[in-house]
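Incident log, structure service

09:12 report received: a user says their structure output differs between two submissions of the same chain.
09:20 pulled the input from the user's history:
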Amino acid sequence: MNSTSRINLNKQPAAASWSAVFALSLCVATLIASEFMPVSLLTPIASDLHISEGSAGQAIVVSGLFAVLTSLSISSLTRGVDCRVVLLGLTLLMALSGAMVAFAPNTAIFMAGRALVGVVIGGFWSMSAATVMRLVPETSVPRALGLLNGGNAAAPLGSFLGQFIGWRGAFFAVVPLAAATFIWLFVSLPSMPATSTKGGTVFRVLRRSIIPLGMTAVSLFFMGMFVLQTYLRPFLETVTLVSTSTLSLVLLVIGAAGLVGTYLIGFALRTRLYSILVSIPVGMAALAIALVVFGHSAVATGSLLAVWGLVGMAAPVCWWTWMSKELPDDAEAGRRPSGRCGAARHRAGCGGRRLGLRYAWI
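09:34 re-ran on a clean worker, output below:
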């Protein structure tokens, strides 16, 4: 079956383009900060826009929905377009989204800005693994994916910035970061023109029995993970009863632990990929139960969340490595259809609203 894939993964790079990998990592950090900003700033956003925290949480559902639509259609819509051009365009769109949300006068504009970042999420994460596989030799892929996912540590920065410059200022900070990312990508990212390969669409890849099982596992894992993460700030404020400064410290600890996790996981994945894929969900389920039990203790909660960040932020590296091994010649066609595991996780996070902040964590 003949089809068009925008990246020829059979062609190994003559030399690793690590500058481009680091530029993509900055892109991830900016994207993650923008994507999960509502999580850490849920309370002030709801107050300023005069909506409930549950309604404000819908910003994550909106971005997830548009991520799904984009990830399923971007390959067809950009067929024949150089991957470099698409990535640069998505970076500019990320800057526009940040500006729209920062200056949003009402909920409608705010949600429209979130829809745009959903397009970026779906587009970027659909292409990122295949792009990394094009930039570095096969033996360096786990390390490069670890660097790429190190940007996940930027997720808690929204609350830290919001404490000093407000939630609008925190969202606007995405704009200069996106501009810097665009410049770095423009300079370092090589041309990756469309190439005809044996690859196909995501639907063809899903006919391989192991892939739907893996995708289901990914969706279930992040569904549980983001029920907790979406309402992290309200949980800490209403159950653990931490102050704003302590809240920012806890979130920064999670981010720092996540950065360490994405670095260390690359070494472990060389020999223990499948055992790690099994143990991470079990460990995080145990951590969620422990948070329900010990959530009133600030010390215990902070310690548990540090471990949560260490393990949880390393999980995408595991799944990407699995994907690169299962689909070494079809990574782009086999992309995770939602830009980092689907709207299912975003829907799950918001689905827990109104059930009680304490018990939405399970």
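09:41 both user submissions now match this output. Likely a transient worker issue. Closing.
09:42 reviewer note: The radius of gyration is 19 Å. The longest strand covers residues 3-5.
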